[in-house]
Design a protein that fits this description.
- With 164 residues, this protein is mainly alpha-helical.
- Helices cover 70% and strands 0% of the residues.
- The protein has six helices and no strands.
């Protein structure tokens, strides 16, 4: 096994974990909460997956994927910084930041899978293939619905109830 193949396998293994972890976090708490064990695992695996993606720069060059990876890292930082302090403001900034990391993660995951499946005749030739547009629009729609749900839930949790 070459170093490149071992790196690819390690990167893929680590990068697949946050897909399930994020989904589980959304199912349990309605969002990724970095104060929970599940949230910490999500942040850690996204961080490791993002950092290891830069190991492909020498072979692939600096691609739009690396730009999105930098955006992901910035959003992770924002989501982590907002755990404490005034920036938190009921968790809105944190929720938007971490939900957006999940969207970017799903864009990466679906693109990579569809570039290789079905074997022998993949759905997409490369990341810029127009066949991926409906998939990405579907991800964007799911993101907007999920984010709206999360923000409305935060709002209702912070709105005082009227008492008679």
């Amino acid at each position: 096994m070459t170093t490149s193949t071992a790196l690819t396998l390690a990167h893929t293994a680590v990068s697949v974990l946050p897909v399930g972890l994020g989904l589980l976090a959304f199912a349990r708490k309605g969002r990724v909460d970095p104060r929970t064990q599940l949230g910490k695992w999500y942040l850690g695996t996204v961080l490791v997956g993002s950092v290891t993606a830069f190991a492909f720069v020498p072979r692939l060059g600096f691609t739009p994927g690396q730009v999105l990876t930098l955006v992901t890292l910035a959003l992770l930082a924002v989501g982590t910084v907002t755990v404490r302090g005034e920036w938190r403001r009921n968790g809105y900034v944190q929720t938007v930041a971490l939900s957006t990391t999940y969207l970017l993660l799903m864009v990466f995951a679906t693109t990579e899978v569809l570039k290789h499946v079905p074997v022998g005749h993949p759905f997409a030739a490369n990341a810029a293939d127009p066949a991926l547009l409906p998939v990405r629009l579907g991800l964007l729609a799911a993101y907007l619905v999920g984010l709206t749900y999360q923000l409305l839930r935060l709002r209702s949790a912070s709105t005082p109830t009227a008492r008679l």
